[in-house]
Amino acid sequence: xxxxxxxxxxxxxxxxxxxxxxKFLIDNVRITTAAELVELDELQQAFREKALVxxxxxxxxxxxxxxxxxxxxxxxxxxxGHAVAVLQHEPPAKMTTTQEIGALIDEIMGIESKPGSExxxxxx
Length: 124
Known about the structure:
The protein is mainly alpha-helical. The chain folds into two domains: about 5-80, no CATH class; about 95-124, no CATH class. It has three helices and two strands, in the order E-E-H-H-H. It has a two-stranded antiparallel ribbon. The model is unreliable at about 1-10 (pLDDT under 50).
């Protein structure tokens, strides 16, 4: 094969793609993307008046989907696999007012309570 070759190992198979073949694939992707964008523009124009002037909600939803598809084609939407995971930690355990009062009574009486213990000591 003329040009520089690249080896792609996938599932145990070697695939050789020459430099000119890669250029052809990239050009083909560019042409296809451009054609898709033109079609999306035409579709959006077809629904624009109905959505904006006639206030047709179905046409408005289609325009939103068209805009989302355009953003995806242009690489403006983040890939799903890279979504941010939000982790929420449990808030620290808080004593109830009854437990707080019990702890104060224990402190005044000189009774030591274990940290994190929910047992209430009452002096009799």
